[in-house]
Amino acid sequence: MDWKPYEHNVKYYETDQMAIVHHSNYIRWFEEARVDWLEQVGLPYDEMERRGIIIPVLSVSAEYKTMTRFGETVRILPRLEKYNGVRMEVSYTVVNAGSGEVRCVGRSGHCFLNRDYKPLILKNTAPDYHAVFQQVYAACHREE
Amino acid sequence: MDWKPYEHNVKYYETDQMAIVHHSNYIRWFEEARVDWLEQVGLPYDEMERRGIIIPVLSVSAEYKTMTRFGETVRILPRLEKYNGVRMEVSYTVVNAGSGEVRCVGRSGHCFLNRDYKPLILKNTAPDYHAVFQQVYAACHREE
Amino acid sequence: MDWKPYEHNVKYYETDQMAIVHHSNYIRWFEEARVDWLEQVGLPYDEMERRGIIIPVLSVSAEYKTMTRFGETVRILPRLEKYNGVRMEVSYTVVNAGSGEVRCVGRSGHCFLNRDYKPLILKNTAPDYHAVFQQVYAACHREE
Amino acid sequence: MDWKPYEHNVKYYETDQMAIVHHSNYIRWFEEARVDWLEQVGLPYDEMERRGIIIPVLSVSAEYKTMTRFGETVRILPRLEKYNGVRMEVSYTVVNAGSGEVRCVGRSGHCFLNRDYKPLILKNTAPDYHAVFQQVYAACHREE
């Protein structure tokens, strides 16, 4: 159970008139990295939605450490901080792909909903997904 | 049958590192102006969607005349260029709200779909909407 | 020293395929509300930038309480939580303009930079702005 | 003188409540593809801007053929339609990376500006860049 960091080339339209990436885009990058990571571990988000499982964002936070500029590639490493089958928390570290300098750290909180936006217990609704999340959680907390 | 131009205050996040509004945002402003205008003439788009009528964009074009900057308010005037109950074309003129200087002109093409994304004939599906579109068309072409 | 909440009509392009506003847009709304509020109290952000004062975002957080949909208007009330002339923190409450139901609460942290992205002490660089921020802070903490 | 099509994985935040990619994002994809293509042929856009050459968008158009959905990868092929050292036009074909089905075709028009937003003649200002654009143009029109 392993995954590669997500890579993102900064887009021109992601810059603002400070000539740096607008802060709101990191929140979108977290989502890109989360979707990529879920796919890597065998949980493609489009398939999950087709099976009627939605993972909305309950909370999000970011601390901006250094500025990201156009022309740069960033590497984003997600980590499953908390998971109990009903809620989860994911953290993100965004670094410059060349130097490794930290650009931003952040976190997002989620629950699991069905198509009617009612909370569901993943263990009951999709035990196969639940098993994968447990494995991912174990991999993230192995070293502690 | 009359309507006011739509006003939009330029957002900081709409700028790019050229210190002007990124060109893709004008396409979004066209949509904002279109939705506002439809509401003004009695065709609120959220209600249309609830009644099962979707108006996708088939084509879009824009010509950028002068640059728009943060701190500016633009005024956008939509005009129903073509309408035949199956398709329509709307044009947009974006001007600086203070000076009237033209920032951008553009156009969007649309059809009408039902919830299954099948084309529909508005005259049959929603004769009340069709009647309004005809009135709007007449108002736009009155002077010609 | 008083200000009105900022109003935002939800845009179609702000929705995602869950048929709700994508969570990243609230971060942009915070900025819209912050810019509007600064202008209301006499600190227009475009003027501040022209005077060489930049207010970057150091951190941001949001808790999503209920879902916002297209067709809705939200009202956003910013509040100056902390201010010491070098850094500031602003909180935001996003409510449905009709019912007052809370959609989201959030917070952003900022410092003040000059054109070379070097930190500055607002009291020294722009004592007039500093005085306004102090008044705003007092107004926000009056009742406590 | 050859280049590979640009690949883009559709992002969740690029969808709207029609459960398809919002039409404004294709305009951003054109830019992504253009930047990638310029880099492939030896004209990295961040380097051009550092040398004081800006390539603003004068016009843009798109025709939407079929809908793009989340979970999909699109492939975008830019082509230099016109180039005379003062202006250029680029066309784009967006296809589903798997099936090759055409999603969208479009075009963007550009000029070349210096840092003061004054038009420049690329042949004079940057003959090395001009030579590359001529080669790219020749490669695009070879077969005709």
What is the element layout, followed by pairings?
4 copies of one chain form a homotetramer.
Chain A: E1 6-9, H1 24-40, H2 45-50, E2 57-64, E3 73-83, E4 87-96, E5 102-111, H3 122-125, H4 127-141
Antiparallel strand pairs in A: 1-3, 2-5, 3-4, 4-5
Q: Can you give me a brief rundown of this structure?
A:
With 144 residues, chain A is α+β, with helices and mostly antiparallel strands. The first copy, chain A, is built from four helices and five strands.
What can you tell me about this protein's structure?
The structure is a homotetramer of 144-residue chains. The first copy, chain A, has 144 residues and is of the alpha+beta class. Helices cover 29% and strands 30% of the residues of chain A. Chain A contains 4 helices and 5 strands. Chain A has a 5-stranded antiparallel beta sheet with strand order 1-3-4-5-2. In chain A, strand 3 and strand 4 form a beta hairpin. Chain A is globular, with a radius of gyration of 16 Å. The mean pLDDT of chain A is 96. Chains in contact: A-B, A-C, A-D, B-C, B-D, C-D. The interface between A and C is medium-sized, with 22 and 22 residues.
- How many H/I helices of chain A? 4
Question: What is the topology, as strand order, of the major beta sheet of chain A?
Answer: 1-3-4-5-2
Largest sheet: number of strands, sense, barrel closure of chain A: 5 strands, antiparallel
Query: What characteristic shape of chain A results from the CA principal axes?
Result: globular
pLDDT average of chain A, as an integer? 96
- Sequence of secondary-structure elements of chain A: EHHEEEEHH
**Share of residues in helices of chain A:** 25-40%
Rg of chain A, please? 16 Å
**Strand residues, percent of chain A:** 25-35%
Largest interface: A-C, 22 and 22 residues
Outline the low-pLDDT stretches of chain A: none
Structural class of chain A: alpha+beta
What kind of assembly state do the chains in view correspond to?
homotetramer
